[in-house]
């Protein structure tokens, strides 16, 4: 065998050197097909999680062998060597995090050889994100960023041949419409995935509907994208895993007693023929891979070579199966060239259930503090990117620190990171990585602010524990302190700022030296009682700030002799009187509480009054002991309640803080649940800041905690949830778009991911909840909304992680804190528009930086671009340094087609303020000139177009390219509802 291989290797090198002169990659490199046969496209791939049972580095280097022997480094090593041996062999690489790590460690010679493999299409990238992101719990901003990072590496390293043509989301747990829309906006032609509801799969198999044209947006034109699911899973056919991880026999040919070619070929022919009946065309795609396959690619490829040889040899005996090394993009191209039409898909693929007791709806909420931490990471990433742009931070050290934060945030989007479905040790490693990346990037923010303000020696420290009212810099003494606020939003924003302090008298002044009114609000006793929290800081200074981009406030302690400052409002605690009702209100909102129960009873705002009762409830999580359907436990992935919800009905103790501009009702619900219900003057939403944990489990019961809002709104079984923070989807209780669901699990079968927003309405009224991290949610009864906020489970759900989701910290169950915002309104378009604007403020509030100084800092008169003139629904989604002399920016229209119209504005002044010389437009990810975008268009079953016509989508508008010498009118930008446009400015 050795001799034979060397010949192949020599031939491979020879053919490579010929090919390299003119690259044929992507669609150009697809194998020849036989029209009269069933073409079976073999897809060699390895699904490599960037952390799950082992950490990202343990997987890469192969340590922790007692967990498993997986070593991704060796996968890539051996795959590359095997591709070099035979130019027909192909492989798709998906996770760019692993690939770039590997590539950067190789010799120049090997790098050159890899480039040739990419240029001749043997090594093709699919997906192309830094990771294979989750689709339920991610926010679109994070997803777009992580594609930018992965695709950027591919472009810089391999040029246009590095660019994928398809999305490859085989393992994410259900599929969102917004992710499909992002693929379409990046110029991809299709998306392949696996995990769809088992009932949906049965229906699609029977109706030949596994492959669809997905209309990925209700607002965007040209949003159709091909999407395909396999007949069952993404693993290789049973018996055909040749990897060292598997127990199946390799193919033995030649004159040997053990020759098994006939058995193997018969098996594969049968499988291929059987499989082809579930698809519309004479093409089928067979996955020849699985999780972490190709540990030793030599065995895999040697056996696939034999399989192809012997299966195709049967054609002379009349076999209709034609086996070939291919890629998903080539498979898609084959379909595109057929006279074939496809069914329509408009909603999404949530929730995913794998059997009648397994709705994968637990992970919508699993690890709530990690989900929130990732939002903080995104928040700071956007702040640092903007600041770095304004201050021209282009030094290597700044760029590398920013890259680490970008990549770490990319990592966190992984479908076993943000989902909370990783082992505890891996979760801790993610926390470590994100903490290090955030702390590292503080240096960039500090250096930028030292350039942009006159506080040239300011510390500009970030406090990552503000959610529990702790900040090291203010803890001992908040005297001679400067708080610098950075507003990452496009428009000037007015918000309330909270700074944890001791109970003293303070003076706060703004940059112009004007004294600012503040209130000193007590920190809830339950927060003070947190075991690990120092008790020093018991209050928060609360003041109102209006900030365009950057503003500073100076805080000092007033000597006790002068402690009668008029600016301080410090009302004392008051207990509710014996009346039946307790009322708190400001100029916009009135809340009525029932004194007998302590619960919220009525909300009046926006001219609407509604009975809204808010309660907490506990689902007991089912605890089974094996993976049999009926014994399936509630776990990290699955949500399976055991019996009905138990709503907490004990009388809630109330404490009221009734300030001038801030009103708070502190609810003590039980030993481990408390809440602050809060109003701010001028802010048109009610804040519910919950504190849950440690969830007691000494009764051996798993528990999942929800917050519920019950109203009299006749919602008629309908509710709405967002898709990754963008468009809303209509949900109908107990129904799905395309199939009849198995509703053995009535509760979790109606759970959906809520990334930012969930609402119900009737003809008159609309009730909306906005959240601060992804959660599972539903409307299980008319008039009611619920969000799951925390869970602690004592059994594993047998989907692989092999650990119960039993988070602890400081030796006790994990305590989580977060916010849910309620908006009650008329059921009008005005209401949904207001929600969009609220959502932006909740997603990216002011970031607070703290410095010690004895005078107020002011912003230097450096000309920052002025975004405030942009129309209200236009948001600057991204502003970041792209290369040493380039800036990437994205504008988005945040309203949908029901809420707003097309808007136009001119970006000349922004371009000038960014010192632009040239500007060009790219696809959403930022890496392909929009003018070069060309994606495959497929024909619908019913739209009456001629299916024999081969069609493409190109840019739906004329891409903007301009330079500084051109007329201002060239810089006009038009945005349709929900449109995002991406530009690179060269300075
Ligand atoms: C696909 O379905 C949606 C919703 O039913 C419909 O609005 C749209 O026109 C359909 N598209 C085609 C091409 O049939
Ligand atoms: C950043 O660089 C641009 C172009 O060189 C220049 O116009 C601008 O003043 C610089 N800004 C700062 C804060 O240095
Ligand atoms: Zn995975």
Characterise the protein shown here.
The structure is a single chain. With about 1000 residues, the protein is α+β, with helices and mostly antiparallel strands. It contains 18 helices and 51 strands. A nine-stranded antiparallel β-sheet has the order 26-27-28-29-40-35-34-31-32. Helix 6 (about 140-160) packs across helix 13 (about 395-410), helix 12 (about 370-390) packs antiparallel against helix 13 (about 395-410) and helix 13 (about 395-410) packs antiparallel against helix 14 (about 425-450). The radius of gyration is 29 Å and the shape is globular. The two termini are about 60 Å apart. The protein binds 2-acetamido-2-deoxy-beta-D-glucopyranose (2 copies) and zinc ion. Zinc ion binds near residues 47 and 416.
TL;DR of this structure?
The chain is α+β, with helices and mostly antiparallel strands. It is 24% helix and 28% strand.
Helix percentage: 10-25%
Number of helices: 18
Strand order of the largest sheet: 26-27-28-29-40-35-34-31-32
Q: Uncertain runs with pLDDT below 50, 5 residues or more?
A: 1-21
User: Could you tell me the mean pLDDT?
Assistant: 94
**Gyration radius over CA:** 29 Å
- Shape from CA axes? globular
Strand percentage lies at 25-35%
Question: How many distinct beta strands?
Answer: 51
Major sheet: 9 strands, antiparallel
Bound molecules: 2-acetamido-2-deoxy-beta-D-glucopyranose, zinc ion
Terminal-residue CA separation: 58 Å
């Amino acid at each position: 065998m050795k001799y034979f291989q060397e010949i192949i290797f020599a031939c491979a090198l020879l053919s490579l050197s010929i090919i390299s002169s003119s690259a044929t990659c992507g669609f150009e490199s697809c194998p020849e097909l036989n029209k009269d046969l069933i073409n079976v496209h073999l897809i060699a791939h390895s699904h490599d999680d960037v952390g799950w049972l082992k950490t990202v580095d343990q997987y890469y280097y192969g340590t922790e062998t007692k967990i498993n022997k997986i070593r991704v480094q060796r996968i890539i090593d051996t795959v590359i060597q095997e591709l070099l041996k035979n130019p027909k062999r192909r492989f798709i690489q998906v996770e760019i995090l692993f690939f770039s790590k590997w590539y950067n460690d190789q010799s120049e010679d090997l790098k050159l050889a890899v480039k040739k493999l990419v240029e001749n299409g043997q090594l093709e990238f699919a997906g192309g994100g830094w990771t294979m992101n989750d689709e339920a719990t991610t926010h679109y901003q994070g997803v777009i960023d992580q594609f930018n990072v992965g695709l950027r590496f591919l472009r810089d390293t391999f040029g246009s041949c590095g660019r994928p043509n398809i999305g490859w989301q085989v393992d994410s747990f259900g599929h969102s419409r917004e992710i499909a829309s992002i693929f379409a906006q990046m110029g991809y032609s299709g998306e392949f995935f696996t995990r769809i509801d088992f009932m949906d799969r049965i229906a699609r198999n029977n109706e030949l509907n596994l492959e669809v044209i997905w209309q990925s947006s209700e607002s965007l034109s040209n949003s159709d994208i091909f999407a395909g699911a396999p007949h069952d899973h993404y693993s290789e056919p049973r018996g055909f895993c040749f990897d060292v991880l598997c127990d199946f026999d390799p193919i033995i040919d030649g004159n040997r007693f053990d020759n098994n070619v006939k058995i193997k070929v018969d098996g594969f022919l049968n499988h291929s023929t059987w499989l082809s009946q579930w698809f519309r065309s004479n093409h089928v795609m067979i996955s020849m891979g699985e999780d972490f396959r190709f540990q030793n690619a030599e065995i895999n490829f040697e056996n696939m070579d034999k399989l192809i040889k012997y299966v195709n040899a049967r054609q002379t005996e009349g076999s209709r199966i034609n086996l070939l090394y291919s890629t998903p993009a080539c498979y898609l191209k084959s379909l595109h060239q057929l006279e074939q039409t496809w069914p329509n898909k408009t909603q999404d693929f949530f929730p995913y259930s794998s059997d009648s007791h397994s709705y994968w709806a637990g992970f919508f909420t699993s690890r709530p503090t990690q989900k929130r931490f990732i939002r903080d990471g995104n928040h700071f990433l956007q702040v640092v990117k903007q600041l770095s742009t304004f201050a021209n931070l282009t030094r290597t050290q700044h760029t590398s620190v920013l890259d680490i934060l970008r990549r770490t945030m990319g990592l966190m989007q992984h479908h076993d990171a943000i989902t909370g479905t990783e082992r505890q040790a891996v979760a801790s490693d993610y926390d470590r990585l994100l903490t290090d990346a955030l702390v590292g990037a503080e240096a960039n923010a500090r250096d930028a602010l030292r350039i942009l303000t006159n506080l040239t020696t300011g510390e500009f420290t970030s406090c990552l524990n503000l959610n529990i009212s702790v900040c090291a810099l203010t803890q001992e003494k908040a005297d001679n302190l400067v708080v610098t606020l950075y507003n990452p939003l496009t428009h000037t924003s007015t918000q309330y700022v909270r700074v944890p302090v001791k109970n003293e008298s303070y003076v706060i002044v703004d940059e112009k030296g004007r004294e600012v009114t503040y209130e000193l609000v007590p920190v809830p006793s339950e927060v003070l009682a947190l075991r690990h929290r120092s008790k020093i800081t018991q209050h928060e200074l609360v003041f109102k700030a209006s900030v365009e981009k950057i503003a500073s406030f100076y805080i000092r302690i007033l000597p006790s002799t002068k402690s009668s400052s008029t600016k301080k409002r410090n009302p004392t605690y008051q207990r509710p009187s014996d009346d039946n009702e307790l009322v708190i209100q400001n100029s916009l909102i009135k809340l009525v509480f029932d004194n007998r129960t302590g619960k919220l009873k009525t909300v009046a705002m926006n001219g609407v009054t509604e009975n809204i009762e808010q309660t907490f409830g506990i689902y007991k999580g089912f605890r089974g002991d094996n993976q049999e359907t009926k014994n399936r436990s509630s776990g990290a992935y699955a949500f399976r309640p055991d019996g009905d919800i138990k709503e907490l009905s004990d009388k809630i103790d109330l404490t009221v803080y009734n300030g001038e501009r801030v009103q708070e009702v502190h609810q003590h619900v039980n030993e481990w649940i408390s809440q602050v219900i809060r109003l701010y003057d001028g802010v048109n939403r009610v804040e519910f800041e919950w504190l849950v944990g440690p969830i007691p489990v000494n009764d051996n019961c798993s528990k999942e905690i929800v917050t519920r809002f019950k109203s009299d709104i006749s919602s008629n079984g309908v509710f709405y949830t967002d898709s990754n923070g963008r468009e809303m989807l209509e949900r109908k209780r107990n129904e799905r778009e395309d199939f009849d669901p198995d509703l053995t699990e009535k509760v979790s079968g109606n759970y959906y991911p809520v990334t930012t927003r969930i609402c119900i309405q009737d003809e008159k009224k609309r009730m909306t909840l906005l959240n601060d991290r992804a959660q599972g949610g539903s409307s299980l009864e008319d008039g009611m909304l619920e969000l799951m906020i925390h869970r602690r489970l004592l059994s594993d759900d047998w989907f692989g992680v092999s650990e119960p989701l039993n988070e602890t910290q400081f030796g006790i169950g994990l305590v989580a804190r977060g916010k849910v915002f309620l908006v009650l309104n008329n059921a009008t378009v005005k209401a949904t528009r207001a929600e969009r604007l609220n959502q932006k403020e909740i997603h990216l509030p002011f970031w607070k930086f703290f410095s010690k100084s004895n005078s107020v800092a002011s912003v230097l008169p450096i000309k920052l671009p002025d975004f405030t003139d942009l129309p209200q629904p236009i948001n600057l989604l991204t502003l970041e340094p792209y290369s040493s002399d380039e800036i990437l920016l994205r504008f988005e229209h945040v309203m949908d087609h029901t809420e707003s119209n097309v808007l136009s504005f001119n970006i000349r002044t922004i371009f000038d303020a960014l010192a632009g010389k040239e500007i060009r437009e790219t696809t959403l990810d930022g890496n392909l000139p929009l003018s070069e975008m060309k994606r495959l268009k497929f024909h619908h079953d019913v739209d009456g177009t001629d299916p024999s016509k081969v069609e493409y989508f190109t840019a739906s508008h004329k891409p903007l390219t301009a330079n500084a010498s051109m007329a201002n009118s060239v810089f006009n930008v038009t945005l349709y509802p929900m449109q995002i446009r991406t530009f690179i400015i060269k300075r």
